[in-house]
Amino acid sequence: MFKTARSRFQTWITAGAGTIAALFVAGLMGAFGALPAHVPPRLPADAAIDAGRWRVKPVRAYVSRAKVYGVPLKPGQKALVLEADMTNRTAQSDKAYFNVFTPDGLALPDGLPMVALTRDSTLTPELHPGMTERMAYVWPLAGDTAVPASLNFGVTAEIFKPRDNLYGMPGWFNPYRLGTVTLPVAELPVTDWPANGS
């Protein structure tokens, strides 16, 4: 009888402790879940930004309703264009720059942009180490897409690893959103379309 009562008491104590521990863990998880998500910082729109393998400096953003820098548009489309000075910070020529900039809040029918040199309209060129080039990111949009007067562009960076976990080779990995740069967006009249866009 005494052993039965004692075992019941131990069972209640154990169950109570387990319940308290579960409630404590659930409370902690709820508290951490309620914390605000990390918001990437605002980046300067008038200064160079180190984004992993690239150093970038946004120059201007605008909307074009005609072919720009050799990128043709389908009937009824327009293009959002971001021009930026880009420097390859690595030791070899590279063109892994398509994801560096992403406009926020717009439906992008083609996903990745076309990217061209502004000086001669060469599409998707390799950028050589240490050489700064002005590049145009061109995103085709539906003609009726509302583009705000100022737009946030996410900037993606990568992390250099001397040895990756799979092959033990050096490279750039783990893309992440470094921050956001905000630029005014102009709608260029026909006479102001870039000369290389014809």
From TrEMBL:
The keyword Membrane applies. This is DUF4352 domain-containing protein. The chain crosses the membrane at residues 12-35. It comes from the Bacteria. Keywords: Membrane, Transmembrane, Transmembrane helix. It comes from Mesorhizobium calcicola.
